[in-house]
Amino acid sequence: MEEQQLTENIIKKVALRFFRHYYKFRLRYEDQPVVAKYDLEGVGGIVADGFYSFKKPDGKPFTATFEATSKASKDEVLFRSDNRILLWDGLAVTGFGMVLLAFFNYQNHFHALDNTKLGERIALLVMVGALVLSLFYLIARNFRRYRYIYAVEQFKKYFADEQWVALGTDVFEDKNDKHLRELKSQCVFNGIGLLTVDKNLDPKIIITPSRHDIFAGRRQSVDFLSQKQVKELDKKGKIELFPSLLGFGKKDKTVLRHRKSTRTQVAMLIGSMALLAIIFTKELENPDFQLVDKQEFTDKIAKSKSNTLGEPTAYLPDSSSMPKRKKSRTNESFWTLQNAKETTPVPAESAVADSGLRSAGGDELTSKGGGEIVYDCSRFYNFDGKKFIVEVGELNDYKVATVTVQAIRGKGIYAAALLKSCFTEEKKGFLVYAGEIYNTAAEASKEMDGWVAKNKLTKTEVRNWKIRAIEPVLK
Q1: H helix count then E strand count, the chain
Q2: In the chain, N or C terminus with fewer CB closer than 10 Å?
Q3: Where are the strands (E) in 85-224, listed by range?
Q4: Is the pLDDT of residue 233 over 50?
Q5: What is the pTM of this model?
Q6: Ramachandran category for residue 361: left, alpha or beta (phi over 0 → left; psi -120 to 50 → alpha)
Q7: Which pLDDT tens digit goes with each residue over 371-389?
C-alpha cells in the first residue's frame, strides 16, 4: 500500500484535532462555544492556517493559532540571511560611531579642521565608517535577528495566547539540519510551540509554547476573516476602498513579506549625518588656518579701518613685568662662587653688565661666569612656577659656602650658591647647589645619577644631597 503523502491540508486537520485534545482541560465557560477554524486571513496579509478559541473564566478570550507546513511549503520554516536589515543596522551603528568619533575629536583637537582639510576629514570618516561597518558585519551576521523565518516573523505580527508551528516529519529528514536547529532555537526564544505530524497522522510535541506573553503586550490583536469573506470583500472592491482599515491593498504573497522595517535605521543615519554637519560647522567657525583668495584678502585689508592709521612715532619693546616681593629686597643678591678670595660680596651694580645668567626661553636658568659674579635677586623673578636644584647644603658662613662650591667644581661639576632670602623667608645664609637649575625634579635626579655613573662622585659623597624645589617669594 502506498504511503499517504503529508499535505498541508492533512497537517492542518491533524493539528486542529490535536488542539481539541490538548486544550480540553483548560478552564473555560462550559456554556460558551469553542471556535475552531482553518485558513483565516487578517490585516497586512497575516495568515492563520488554524485558529482555536474559547472564553476563559475571567471573561477574556483565549486564542491559539498554528502555521502548518508540509514538504511542499517548507520555505515557510527555512531561515534566510536578512542582509537588508543587516546592512541598515550596520549603517545606523556606523553613523552613530562616526558621531562619537567626531565629537571626541572636537573636544581633544586631534585632527584640526579648516577649509583646506574638509576633503581629508570626509575621507578619514569614510575609512573609519568602512572599518566599523566591516567589523559589524563580521560580528553580527550570525545573530538571530538576521535569520529570517517566515512562520516565526508572522507570529510576531499579531497577538495570540499560544502559537504553534506544525510540521510534517518529512520536512526535515535530517534531524541535525541547520534549518531545523535554527527553527527550534527561535521557537524557544519567542515562546512558540513546535509540533510534528508523522505519516501515521500522529502528532508529537517537540516544544511547548510559553504560557506568558514574551513580547510584553507589544503585539496587536487581529481580527481574522475566512477565505470566503476575504473573496467577497475583494469582489465588492472594499479591500481597495479601505486599505488602511483592513490592511490589504496590494498583497505580497512572498514569504519575505514580514521582514522588519528599516525606518528606524534610516532615521538614525539621517540624524547622525545632521549631527556630523553641526560638529563640522562648529570646527570651521574657529579654524587654525583659513585659506582665502588673494584678491579677496587684499580688498579686505584695503577696506580695513586700521589701514588709515599712521605709523607710531615710538615703539615699546616687550618686557616682562617684575612681581613685588615681600619687604622690598631689590638690593639683595645671590652669588655664583668660583675661585672666590674675598670674604665680602661684590656690589650688585658692578656685576649687572657682566651677566653669567643664561635663559633658554625663560624655562631653564643656569649661573655661569668667569669669576665671582653677583646678581640682583630680581633676576630670578621670571621663573615660571617651581624650578629644581640638587641641594648640597644650607650654609650660614660665606667662606664655608665658597670652599664647598670650589670643592664641587674641582670634581668637574658646576656648582653655585644662592642667597636663601631670594627663595625663603630667611634673611641669612646660602643655599649651595650642584649642577644647573632644572625644570623638573626628574631632570635634576637624572643629572645627579649621571655624576655617579661617570665616577665624578661616589654614592657616599651624594648620600646627603637632595632634590629641592625653589620659587621666588612674591608679595
Answers
A1: 12, 17
A2: N
A3: 147-149, 162-168, 193-197, 203-207
A4: yes
A5: 0.54
A6: left
A7: 443 345 665 666 677 888 8
